[in-house]
Design a protein that fits this description.
Elements: H1 10-44, H2 69-77, E1 84-87, H3 90-95, E2 110-112, H4 120-133, E3 138-143, H5 145-149, H6 165-176, H7 179-190, H8 209-218, H9 220-244, H10 253-265, E4 269-274, H11 279-287, H12 291-306, E5 312-316, E6 333-335, E7 338-339, H13 341-353, E8 360-361
Parallel strand pairs: 1-2, 1-3, 3-4, 4-5
Antiparallel strand pairs: 5-8, 6-7
């Protein structure tokens, strides 16, 4: 007959005692190990999620934010009130100083929300998130004309994901209990005294250590040559596409209209900047036969802005001028696509202080 199995005898229970003791010790040891890893990661805070204090020689420099920029900036932005913010890609992230004296007094402090690899769609998402937090008075948005030169494509609406408790818990777990965070913490501590290491400031600006490291490894000439070749290849590809669509509408005008609408609805002053490039970029546009498309994209953007509210200004810094044409290109540019902070300051002076000699405020007739 089937019935309840008999209880183990005293002798049998004694045989299992070492195994049970081992399981308890193993479980406690694992819990202690995970707790120590979590505490270590929280103290080092390699992604700036926890908000641990920066200690010189220990965790003050944050090199792992280079690969976790969006995560780091999401939490940095929540720790202070920022009436002024700037949006764009790595040009903004590296090239603009949120502590510049050129910023209007009513827009300080300023947060640099530039994200490497981000396009105008990304800027729209970040702007919406910032507007939803409230308190934003002025936005500086960099746009790349190359995005608008592409043939227009019907894209799904740009979605904005609200930041909630579930996401916050996920990020904390990722930043404290993951193996990725452990290796990042170890590298963060080890890199404190290294030269030319990437760092992210509390107000969101990435330092120039990454570019300095590239130059130290391969030299400035190599960096320029590689980027020039990549630009030329991308422009040849665009020219080939436009041969099949010579009258294609300009891309992303609807996204730019959404950026303007968000600022209008939230009473945010908006300054749009067409990002500068070194003259070699413009030369490659001409060689690819894209100059008419380049000029047409500028006019289309200018017409759109001109039809908007008075709170929007459009500035153009993309063209042949004394900076893009400087024989010593390295004075103002890391390579053809990325300008240095020295030129970024010239841009801010022109936009917010009315300094002449660089850039022009665009109208449809300009």
């Amino acid at each position: 007959m089937h019935g309840t199995p008999p209880l183990p005898t005293i002798g049998e229970a004694t045989q299992f005692a070492p195994f049970a003791r081992f399981c308890r010790i193993w479980g406690i040891s694992l819990l202690v190990l995970v707790s120590l890893i979590g505490a270590c990661n929280a103290l080092v805070d390699p992604y700036l999620v926890i908000g641990a204090p920066r200690i010189a020689g220990f965790n003050a420099v944050k090199p792992e934010t280079e690969t976790h920029t969006l995560l780091a900036k999401t939490y940095l932005m929540q720790r202070a009130y920022y009436p002024g913010m700037m949006f764009g890609d790595s040009k903004v992230d590296i090239g603009l100083d949120p502590k510049s004296p050129s910023w209007p007094a009513d827009s300080r402090p300023v947060f640099n929300d530039g994200l490497p690899g981000s396009g105008i769609d990304g800027s729209l998402v970040q702007l919406r998130n910032a507007a939803a937090r409230g308190g934003l008075r002025r936005a500086l948005v960099f746009i790349e004309l190359g995005e608008f030169m592409q043939p227009a494509r019907k894209m799904p609406p740009v979605e904005t994901t609200p930041f909630g408790i579930a996401q916050h818990l996920h990020d904390i777990t990722r930043a404290t209990l993951s193996l990725d965070a452990l290796w990042s913490s170890l590298y963060t501590v080890a890199a404190q005294n290294e030269a030319d290491v990437v760092d992210l400031s509390p107000d969101g600006a990435t330092g120039d250590g990454g570019f300095r490291a590239l130059i130290a490894r391969g030299g400035t000439a190599e960096l320029f040559t590689q980027k020039q070749a990549a630009n030329a290849e991308a422009q040849r590809a665009l020219a080939a596409r436009l041969q099949d669509e010579p009258d294609a509408a300009f891309n992303h005008l609807d996204t730019l209209a959404d950026i303007i609408a968000v600022c209008h609805q939230n009473h945010i002053a908006l300054d749009l900047v067409i990002a500068p490039f070194q003259a070699d970029y413009l030369d490659s546009l001409r060689k690819a036969g894209l100059w008419p498309r380049y000029e047409g994209a500028k006019r289309a953007v200018a017409r759109l802005v001109a039809g908007s509210a008075e709170h929007v200004a459009l500035w153009d810094f993309l063209g042949y001028d004394s900076y893009s044409n400087d024989p010593d290109a390295t004075k103002w540019f890391w390579e053809p696509n990325h300008f240095k902070r020295a030129l970024g300051e010239k841009i801010l002076e022109a936009v917010y202080r009315g300094a002449g000699g660089y850039g022009v405020r665009l109208t449809p007739a300009a």
